[in-house]
Amino acid sequence: MAAIGIDGLGKRYGALAAVDGVGLSVREGEFLTLLGPSGCGKTTTLRCLAGLEKPDAGEITIGGDVVTSVPEQIFVPPERRDIGMVFQSYALWPQMNVFQNVAYPLRRRRVKRPEVQRRVDQTLELVGLAALADRPVTRLSGGQQQRVALARALVSRPRVVLYDEPLSNLDAKLRAAMRVGIRDFQRELGTTAVYVTHDQVEAMSLSDRIVLMKDGRVQQVGTPRDIYERPRTWFVADFVGYENFFDADIVERAGDRAVARLDGGGIALRCFGGPAAGRGRVRLCVRSTALSVVPADAGTADRPGDRTNTVSGRVRDSMYLGGQIEHHIEVAGTVLRVRGADPDPSGRAVSPGDAVELRIPAESIVVLDADDEAPEPATRGKQDNLDRVGSP
């Protein structure tokens, strides 16, 4: 039995469909993350699951019990859903100290005093606040207050814990430590977790599976590795950091192997699989870190008889990024981004103006459906790394 079931969930705010036909199944003990840009519907989905929003369509079950059903007019209030929730805001009681805030859910359930003490002590130790148990929450930093909120959600051992961007107010070092703590605690207790974030690092490091959303709809569901290495749409590829995109035609195919000819320059690249069967229009994408660049003369000397997926270009610009360097390489009227270690471990550094050879591993190329809608420029933001030479 699934710990959580969501079927045909819909929520509108006037003309805006914040959630549009979402369906999900969360396994017992699973850590599932709803990931996506602002306004994609992830938080509204979570709030419907918590009972903080009443959907306009669909059904939600928790542990096999129907907690929301629009057709059957069933709506179980939040306090009867056996969930814990960590909000983006702290939502602490200012008149209570740290211990009292964390203990409150247990006392509401009339848990015996020794067990309250044990559970609160254990949870405060996890979040790094054991030494501050007696301190008023009004005398805590923002990060400390958020950790109190996290401890309060976990302390009652609910069957489902919901997280609404709980680490957004913590500094980077503490955020990294808390990611480990949240994951370890969830595994220890075996609780089911649904986590909302726009932070890909959080999603990748915490999750058993990720649900990537856009415009109120699910775009892809998969393990972190599936999402990262095998995106199914241009939007997913762009969101998880693929920077270089090409329009192309499949001109040869043998099993899962194919040859794609790029628009404009007549360049042919070997690639694997993809959603398009046979021949026809496709879109290719590849990460900047998957590409390698060497001086033109070094490339010829290195592999004199092998130019598979090797193209000639010229360095247009180079940027130092602290431990990495990013080159913009002009290839047949298109500028591609290539990112690698600095200094180059091969010792063959390149500079703006240099003629180079660019290698594009076939196994690193993701083949997408040509009919897939490209992301809007505002969505892609800093990820928009396909520049046309001479474009504004």
Automatic annotation (TrEMBL):
<dbReference type="InterPro" id="IPR047641">
    <property type="entry name" value="ABC_transpr_MalK/UgpC-like"/>
</dbReference>
<feature type="region of interest" description="Disordered">
    <location>
        <begin position="367"/>
        <end position="392"/>
    </location>
</feature>
<dbReference type="InterPro" id="IPR017871">
    <property type="entry name" value="ABC_transporter-like_CS"/>
</dbReference>
<dbReference type="InterPro" id="IPR003439">
    <property type="entry name" value="ABC_transporter-like_ATP-bd"/>
</dbReference>
<dbReference type="GO" id="GO:0055052">
    <property type="term" value="C:ATP-binding cassette (ABC) transporter complex, substrate-binding subunit-containing"/>
</dbReference>
<dbReference type="InterPro" id="IPR008995">
    <property type="entry name" value="Mo/tungstate-bd_C_term_dom"/>
</dbReference>
<keyword id="KW-0067">ATP-binding</keyword>
<dbReference type="GO" id="GO:0140359">
    <property type="term" value="F:ABC-type transporter activity"/>
</dbReference>
<dbReference type="GO" id="GO:0005524">
    <property type="term" value="F:ATP binding"/>
</dbReference>
<keyword id="KW-0813">Transport</keyword>
<keyword id="KW-0547">Nucleotide-binding</keyword>
<dbReference type="Pfam" id="PF00005">
    <property type="entry name" value="ABC_tran"/>
</dbReference>
<protein>
    <submittedName>
        <fullName>ABC transporter ATP-binding protein</fullName>
    </submittedName>
</protein>
<feature type="domain" description="ABC transporter">
    <location>
        <begin position="4"/>
        <end position="240"/>
    </location>
</feature>
<dbReference type="GO" id="GO:0016887">
    <property type="term" value="F:ATP hydrolysis activity"/>
</dbReference>
<dbReference type="InterPro" id="IPR013611">
    <property type="entry name" value="Transp-assoc_OB_typ2"/>
</dbReference>
<dbReference type="InterPro" id="IPR027417">
    <property type="entry name" value="P-loop_NTPase"/>
</dbReference>
<dbReference type="InterPro" id="IPR003593">
    <property type="entry name" value="AAA+_ATPase"/>
</dbReference>
<feature type="compositionally biased region" description="Basic and acidic residues">
    <location>
        <begin position="379"/>
        <end position="392"/>
    </location>
</feature>
<dbReference type="Pfam" id="PF08402">
    <property type="entry name" value="TOBE_2"/>
</dbReference>
